[in-house]
Amino acid sequence: xxxxxxxxxxxxxxxxxxxxxxxxxxxxxxxxxxxxxxxxxxxxxxxxxxxxxxxxxxxxxxxxxxxxxxxxxxxxxxxxxxxxxxxxxxxxxxxxxxxxxxxxxxxxxxxxxxxxxxxxxxxxxxxxxxxxxxxxxxxxxxxxxxxxxxxxxxxxxxxxxxxxxxxxxxxxxxxxxxxxxxxxxxxxxxxxxxxxxxxxxxxxxxxxxxxxxxxxxxxxxxxxxxxxxxxxxxx
Amino acid sequence: xxxxxxxxxxxxxxxxxxxxxxxxxxxxxxxxxxxxxxxxxxxxxxxxxxxxxxxxxxxxxxxxxxxxxxxxxxxxxxxxxxxxxxxxxxxxxxxxxxxxxxxxxxxxxxxxxxxxxxxxxxxxxxxxxxxxxxxxxxxxxxxxxxxxxxxxxxxxxxxxxxxxxxxxxxxxxxxxxxxxxxxxxxxxxxxxxxxxxxxxxxxxxxxxxxxxxxxxxxxxxxxxxxxxxxxxxxx
DNA sequence: TTCAAAAAATGATATAAATCACTTTATACA
DNA sequence: TGTATAAAGTGATTTATATCATTTTTTGAA
Lengths: 235, 235
What we know:
Two copies of one chain form a homodimer. Chain A has 235 residues and is an alpha+beta fold. The first copy, chain A, has eight helices and eleven strands. In chain A, the strands form three sheets. Chain A has a four-stranded antiparallel β-sheet. A four-stranded antiparallel β-sheet of chain A has the order 2-7-4-5. A three-stranded antiparallel β-sheet of chain A has the order 9-11-10. In chain A, strand 4 and strand 5 (75-81) form a beta hairpin. The longest helix of chain A is centred in the middle third of the chain and has 27 residues, at 126-152. Chain A is globular and about 55 Å long. The model of chain A has no long low-confidence stretch (mean pLDDT 95). The A-B interface holds A 68, 70-72, 74, 76, 78, 90, 93-94, 96, 99-100, 129, 132-134, 136-141, 143-148, 150-152, 193, 234-235 and B 68, 70-72, 74, 76, 78, 90, 93-94, 96, 99-100, 129, 132-134, 136-141, 143-148, 150-152, 193, 234-235. The structure holds a DNA duplex (30 and 30 nucleotides).
C-alpha cells in the first residue's frame, strides 16, 4: 500500500456527508491539528470488542465491518462502514467499552479524533450534537429493522437484502455500470446471519436466475430489482 | 377500570428515573399544563405503525409492548416499556412515521406530551438533550445485543433471557418474593422470536427442572440464577 | 508458470424449530 | 356456578437450515 499524506479535515471530500458537516471552520482546524491518520491493511483490527474507546474513528478510505464474535468463534456483522462514516461513537457516548470490533474489509484509511475533542465538539456545537442525535436515531431504526428481519425473514430474503445493503453502501456515485464487490462468503454469511454454505447455495440459485454473477469472491449484481422483490416477499 | 386524577409531572414518582429527571421546575409546570392524560385497557393500541407521531408518550402505570407485524400477521416485540419509560421518541427525532406499534399489555395509563413541547424542551435544556442522547445510545446497544442473540443463540437460551428481561423490567423494587408475571405464550414467543408451541415446550422443560412454575398464563420465576446460566451457555 | 494454500462449491446427513392437528385447562361472563 | 370461549399444552410431521465431508476453483507467492 503506498503511503499517503494525511488529508485535511477542512478539505475532506466526505465532510459534507459526515457528522462534521455542520462544524465551523475553526473547529475543523482544531480537529485537523489533533486528529491522527491511520492506515490498516485488509483484515486488520481497528478496535477490539472489550477495549476502552479513546476517541472516534472517521473512515477516509476503504470498507469496514463492525462485528461481534461469540464463544464458538462465530461472527455476526452488525453494520458496515464506508468513507465519511464514524466508528465507535456509541461507546463514547455511553462511556463504556466497545461491545463490537471494527475490522478493515479492504485496505483502509481512517482518522482518529481523541475523545476529549469529540466531547468538546458536541458540548460546544449544538448543530453537531443534533446531527449526532439524528445519527443515533437512524442507527437505532436500522438496527431494529435488521432485528425484525432476522426474526421473521428466511435466509434467501435476507441474503437478497444483504446484497442490496452492500450495493447501497458501497456503490460509487452516478455509476451506471452494475455494482460489483469482492467479499468472502463467510463475511456475507456473517451479515445475513447464516452459514457460509447456505449463502453459497442461495447465491448459486441467484446466479442460475441471472440475478447475479460471480468470479471467485467477486459478486456482481446484475438485476437489483429482482433482489428487491425477493427481499420484500414477506414484508 | 376506575377513573383517576391525572398525576402532576412535578410530583410524578417516576420523574427521577425518566427522561425528565433533569427538567427544571418551570419546565415541569409547563409540561404539566400541556400534557394529556390517557388510559388504555389491556390490548388497546397506544399508537400504530405507519402513523405520524404528534408527541411523546410517557408511561405512568401498566405495561406496554412495542412491536411490529409482518404481512403474515406474525408479531415481533421490539421492546417492553414500564412506568417512567417514554414511547415514540425515536420517530419524533427522525421526524418520521412510527415504524412500530405500542400496545398495552395490562391496563395502562400514559401522559402525552405534544411534539412542539418535546422539541422545545430538548432545544432549551442541554441536560435533557444529553440524557436523550444517552437513552438513544443505550437503546441502540440493547437493540444490537438482541440482534446478535437472535442470530446466534438457540430458542432455549433466548427464552431464558426473555424471562429475565421481563423480571428486570417489571419486578417491583426491594421485593424479595419470587417474580411473577401474567403474559400470554404468544407474547412471550413474540419477544423470543419463535413459535408459541416452542415457547410452551421449553417452558415445560423449565418447569420440570423447577426453574419456573406456572398457573394459566402466570409464570413465576423460582430460580433466576439457573435462567441466567442457561441464557449464557454460548456467550 | 507452477504449485500450495485458501476459498468456493457441492453433496449427504443431521437437527432445531415450525407447522398442523388435537386435547386439556383456564378464564370470564351470563 | 355453569358454560362457552380462549388459551395452554401435547404429539406427530414437515421444513429450513446447520453441519460434516469432499471436490473444485481461485489466489498469490516462489
